[in-house]
Amino acid sequence: MKIAIIGAGALGSVIGFHLAPVISITLVDPWAEHVGAINATGLRCTYNGDETSRSIPATTDPASVEPVDVALVTVKAAQTAWAAETAAQLLKPGGVAYTLQNGLGNAEVLSRRLGTLRVGQAVTTLGATLLGPGRVRLAGRGPTTFGAAPSLSIAYALADTFRTAGLPAGVSTDLNSLVWGKLIVNVGINALTAILRVPNGALASVPAASALVRQAVEEAVAVARAAGITLALADPVAETLAVAQATAANRSSMLQDILRGAPTEIDTINGAIVREGRRLGVPTPFNELLCDLVKALEATAPLRVQEP
User: Fold this and answer.
1) Is there a single domain that holds both residue 161 and residue 244?
2) CA of 214: how far to CAs of 35, 196, 239, 285, in Å?
3) How crowded is residue 232: how many other Cβ atoms within 10 Å of its Cβ?
4) Are the beta carbons of 103 and 270 closer than 8 angstroms?
5) Per-residue CA distances from 9 to 22, 26, 280 (Å)
6) Of 14, 43, 62, 172, which residue is 20 to 30 A from 4 by alpha carbon distance?
7) Same domain, 53 and 136
8) Using an 8 Å Cβ cutoff, are 159 and 146 in contact?
9) What are phi and psi of 69, to 5 degrees?
10) Catalytic entry in 2, 76, 92, 182
């Protein structure tokens, strides 16, 4: 099986680093400096203070890659349309693209280009931070679960490959509960860490911040229940705070985006809750506020006051 990872950011780089010794893999990303560093000196991954380098093929040109059986899509939501076009170039006729992205709506974007029979959904709780061109940090080996559709054999093959590479993985015939569970945790963590400019742990250790997490999560849970989703989270607020504490030193992906002045995934995370809430008649005023604040942060990035 040949795999291409479309999007060599934090998550894609960590996955590629681990899979490279056990399967044929290529990283595809438009960031030329990052791709150049990987090809020149290898991809360097830090874990628990130790850094290891591995040689992994990387390119900015999808046309240079031989057709693959699977494309793992790990780009940010704003790049999903590009990822869909890239997957269309890379995949063999029977190949499948699996999205491991945050939020809701990415699989639908891929399906519009590739067709529903060539798009799979996966949920991952791997923690990763991009440190710079050619450098990434693994923050935690959380499990990755692949949906059985559209190909049970490919899903099992991917899970087996991940496990062989030292990454916990499994297969599920119903991902809705996991997709929404991860969404709700992201709703409680990402926007607030970006706005407050704090690592995840601050949300669990500072009572004023924990109270904000509760507001965001409780709205999201109300929307999920109205949508008929059975959540695997027994106590969504407590479990969101537990994730924040377990990843205390980690900077959320949305905080990383805000700090470097990049677009965030607010529309597919908190924005998804707002849209579903409107559709279902469930009020989501706090998540609407979080969306407005993050979008204002994005828009005012060039005007930001710097310390003297």
Assistant:
1) no
2) 40, 15, 11, 13
3) 12
4) no
5) 20, 13, 34
6) 172
7) yes
8) yes
9) -85, -35
10) 182
